[in-house]
Amino acid sequence: MLSAALGRRAAAGLFAIAVVVAAGAGCDVIEGSGSGPSAAAKGGAATRRVEAKATNPPSGLPAAFTTGQRLDWSACPAPSAAQGDGAAPGDGWECATMKAPLDYRRPGRGTIDVAMIRKRATGPERERIGSLLLNFGGPGRSGVIGLPTYAADYAPLGERYDLVSFDPRGVGGTAPVNCGDKKFEGGDACKKHSGGLLPYVGTSQTARDLDLMRYLLGDEKLNYFGVSYGTELGGVYAHLFPKTVGRLVLEAPVDPTQDRLQGNISQVKAVQLAFDRFAQHCANTYDDCPTGSDPEQADQRVIELLDKVKKEPAPTDGDEKLDGDLAAHAIANYLDLGEEGWGPLVMALNEVMERGTGSKLLQKAYDQAPGARVRPWAGVSARSENSGGNGVSAFVAITCADSNVRPGFIKAENMIKRTKAASPIFGEAWSAIVYLCYDWPFKGERANPDVSADSAPPILVVANTGDPTTPYPGAKRMVGELGKEVGVLLTVRAEGHGSYPYNRCATRVVNTYLLDGTAPGHGTTCS
Asked: What is the DSSP letter of 169?
């Protein structure tokens, strides 16, 4: 799942991250090449940098991956088509490629190239903590593309950490999954084009990539900031490598106790509740509220709208028209933005209800922010992969590599009925995910992730009570699954999917934890 706070970052023109912290005592010191743009002086001369060398390489890997490998940082190229195209990030950014095993269970049988990006810490070198490794959610989002766009949100952290991100395996510049020439064409196309890769793009393999990155970045411990799906990745890392957990922030966490279909039903209920709160606000605030002056009318009005555009899609200012599924996901994406999205949602609904055009809703129908919830099943066949990288193919491939839930026809149809019944507005659109992995050519790894990490240090879990994408009860279960005295919950009484850096209280708590290593007390609440 993708973070809505990231949607807010996109609207503000400003991304969420994961973290790796450098080692203190016991590290050898070497000189790095420092050849990238952030190391270059104005005249082009490269500066030298003293870099830490970690002493605890991942176990079980051939030396070629660990002591025999060094990250060669250099100026970042323009994004590839699989990443989404665009311009190179420019000065201040360095990129590198990490060699990783295709399959960590058989590390000698093939490799993949992992695309990485970083911005060096802006503060004094003596105060630098290490590397802050970022994951923006998804699955299926490119960190190499996201970090330069949204790094300004993390400027206080970037003073003492190198901000680092990467494309997870299957995504963008890291062994990208291909499921069709121009758009997602289903499981058979994925097998045809990427069959040799599909079994190895799951979260547990990417978590092992994180540990190799940690070591090559010179850090004894991994400090990580993961958002939405990134919390699953962080939790799996903590389970696999509790002894190398540093300071981990899991924001807008997924519920690790639910499989993907159970989580889908929980989400659709949460989106409906978020809409109900929006409708109450709309009725209290606007004379021309599109959902009516009585919140009781809201469901019916929007259901009528969705039925209308389902039968006759609304024109927009582009070539694509707005249908019912796209409209439902657009409304949810506005709700992901929290109260900041309520005013724009009023205008978008008024546009389509009064003028019959759906441009404003269509703008939000697809996730524009790397950390926003990916809802590709709303438009898997409609949106070109090339317009936004290979995100749809990667989303499906990673989801189906992780999940072994393959319901038969009868169970699937029953789950569709349950999903539709969970929300009169969003249930139908969300029910399409039931068949997401139905004919996938490979078995998934497990029903739900194991995030137990009893011997790890405190891990900070941050959750909004009004989160429509990763419901708040799942945060409590994440804390419980991490283990006693490991998971520490920060409750934020706010709407929307994610709170950093928009909620001042939550931002202060997170920064204190990441910069000083001080976790909040159990039961801490921000409003």
From this structure: T
d(CA 453, CA 474): 17
Q: Which pair of structure tokens corresponds to residue 23?
A: 């080692």
Cβ within 8 Å of residue 205, ≥6 positions away? 103, 104, 169
Other CB atoms within 10 A of residue 403 CB: 23
Sign of CA dihedral 82, 87, 88, 93: negative
Torsion 317-318-319-321 (CA) sign: negative
Here the tokens at position 516 are 């000083």
Q: Name every residue whose Cβ is closer than 8 Å to that of residue 75 and which is 6 or more positions away in sequence.
A: 36, 37, 88, 93, 94, 95
Instruction: Give exposure, 448-471, as e/b (b: 16+ Cβ within 10 Å).
Output: bbebbbeebbbbbbbbbebbbbbb
CA distances from residue 360 to 105, 219, 315, 356 in whole angstroms, order as listed:
48, 45, 11, 11
The H or E element spanning position 293 is none
With b meaning 16 or more CB within 10 Å and e meaning fewer, what string describes 152-169? ebbebbbebbbbbbbbbb
* pLDDT tens per residue across span 180-219: 987 889 999 999 999 999 999 999 999 999 999 999 999 9
Geometric angle at alpha carbon 62, from 64 and 115, rounded to 5°? 55
pLDDT exceeds 50 at position 382: no
HEC string of 42-86 equals CCCCECCEEEEECCCCCCCCCCCCCCCCCCCCEECCCCCCCCCCC
- Distance CA(430)–CA(268), nearest Å, equals 7
pLDDT for the residue numbered 85: 82
- Contact (Cβ atoms closer than 8 angstroms) between residue 434 and residue 264: yes
pTM of the model: 0.89
How confident is residue 48, by pLDDT bands cut at 50, 70 and 90?
low
**Non-local CB neighbours of 341 within 8 Å, separated by 6+ positions:** 7, 8, 333, 334, 335, 496
> For residue range 407-456, what is the model confidence (pLDDT) as tens digits?
999 999 999 999 999 999 999 999 999 999 998 999 999 999 999 999 99
CA-CA distances (angstroms) from residue 439 to 178, 405, 409, 412? 17, 11, 11, 12
CA 307 to chain centre: 31
Q: What is the DSSP letter of 354?
A: I
* R_g over Cα of the chain: 22
Q: Which residue has the tokens 């890997």?
A: 61
Q: What is the largest CA-CA distance in the chain?
A: 68
